[in-house]
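Hey L., structure's done. Input below.
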Amino acid sequence: MSTAASSESTTGQAQSVSFDGATLDVAAAVAVVRASVVSVDTVVQVRQGPFTQEGTGAGTGLVLDATAGYILTNAHVIEDATSVSITLIGETTARTATVVGTDTTHDLAVLHVSDTSGLVAAPFGSSASMAVGDDVVAIGNALALDGGMTVTRGIISAVDRSIETDTGSLAGLLQTDAAISSGNSGGALVNAAGQVIGINTAAATSSGTVTASNIGFAIPVDDALVAAAALTG
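Output:
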């Protein structure tokens, strides 16, 4: 049986695409969510001993509410930022963003942009419907590379994972073998229908005698939307 998935907002509408539920069509899934994924760039103050110097950071965000101009990303993406901007796919001019609020317990933050032209709200699915072995696609601003977002594919490797990160503990995460790199944080983990089911947030790295390969983590979207509602409410 084929089903259709689409996303829409008052300021823009993503295309509808038909899917065969038995097959992952990566290009079709990406087409549904692509317009809702934005790059997030920051200017930060970096301390080196007694000195402080200016640095830059990069991550990814998702359009949470196109009408209100809300963007969802990770809290660690905008940590210590003195300025934040977002850029839509296909555009070269950045838009200034302000931080509405952060939830460090879930590593989430909501940004706001005044210029809402061209924003398309992300098509959110349900993380509760995902099972180990389900196909997923990760989309994000990996390594802040020029030329657009990076897309990788994989499966749900595990659910309800708990990890320790540089900024604290996270619990109840989805684990995936879709490649997640620096810059992917705050990006979309989507199901075969192109619906966002997770917010990419961390990846395991090798250290010393410990080897890690293709182990990434995402915040379940069901939890992320509850946290975002509290920040914007």
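The CA atoms of residues 64 and 71 lie 5 Å apart. The longest helix spans residues 221-232.

-- N.
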